[in-house]
Design goal:
Blueprint (H helix, E strand, L loop, with lengths): L4 E4 L2 E5 L5 H18 L8 E8 L13 E7 L9 E8 L12 E6 L15 E4 L20 E4 L12 E7 L21 E7 L11 E4 L3 H18 L11 E6 L12
Parallel strand pairs: 2-3, 3-4, 4-5, 5-6, 6-7, 7-8, 8-9, 9-10
Antiparallel strand pairs: 1-2, 10-12, 11-12
Length: 264
């Protein structure tokens, strides 16, 4: 592959076609190190565009940087895993385990995402324009002012928010048929923290035993409204109803749902 092409002082384009994921990630890391050295440690102005991406794993994995990474194509598993600070925009779909144990940053996906999106996510925000797979938000958690957020524009698969311990998940149900629930089965199974908002019908039979419905308060409506504004800012769909009455709020029925299983 040819060397990265510097478009401007702060933007670099890397052609990822046919490049092994290790080499691609080494190029990105080396580019970031050189830019930080030249800028005296600052990297907020650096923008990297990866073109021709096709399944390369671990892009932006472990990055501690405010770099902006634009991806054209379909990145592979563990996009931005363990990341702290980067902004990653995907112009296409992404595969499984995006934002795995992510600490901070922003991921915007102009398409759909696969399974276990946001696994053990500890901070940052993920916005997906369309649908997501199974076990999204599993083991999500929050700590003090670190509150992870996942916004799904379309529908989700089964086990949404499984064992969720903190954070916010919002499912908007774009593209769902009239009367069709935008979430799958076993929503919130094992959930013991955080909150899930679902726009559209959710049958009681779809819920795990550990969650219960609650009425939206003023603070909930303000949070949902703010996330909707962010969603529209990124994707410009123009088809999200302004009415907030059709949201279902799901919270854990207990913060220690399996306490009876232990001897202490």
């Amino acid at each position: 592959m040819s060397s990265p092409v510097r478009v401007s002082r702060s933007e670099v384009v890397i052609d990822a076609r046919g490049v092994h994921y290790r080499e691609l990630n080494e190029r990105v890391a080396d580019l970031l190190r050189r830019h930080q050295a030249e800028a005296g440690g600052a990297d907020a102005q650096l923008r990297v565009k990866l073109t021709g991406v096709c399944g390369q794993r671990y892009i932006a994995c472990g990055l501690r940087s405010t770099v902006h990474i634009d991806i054209e194509g379909v990145p592979g598993n563990d996009l931005a895993a363990f990341a702290e600070g980067p902004t990653v925009t995907v112009f296409g779909n992404c595969q499984d385990a995006t934002a795995n144990t992510m600490n901070s940053g922003l991921i915007v996906v102009h398409g759909s995402a696969g399974d276990v999106l946001g696994y053990a996510m500890r901070g940052g925000q993920v916005f997906v324009r369309d649908n997501v797979g199974y076990r999204v938000g599993i083991h999500m958690k929050s700590y003090q002012d670190m509150v992870p957020v996942i916004v799904v524009g379309g529908r989700s698969g089964d086990f949404l928010g499984e064992y969720m311990a903190g954070g916010v998940i919002l499912v908007l149900g774009r593209g769902a048929l009239e009367g069709q629930s935008p979430v799958g089965e076993q929503v919130g199974t094992g959930m013991h923290g955080g909150v899930i908002y679902v726009r559209g019908p959710v049958d009681q039979a779809q819920l795990g035993q550990e969650v219960e419905r609650r009425a939206l308060q003023a603070s909930d409506r303000a949070l949902v409204s703010g996330l909707l504004e962010r969603y529209e800012e990124y994707f410009r769909t123009g088809d999200i109803a302004p009415d907030r009455e059709d949201f279902t709020k799901l919270v854990p029925a207990s913060h220690r749902p399996y306490g009876r299983l232990y001897a202490y």
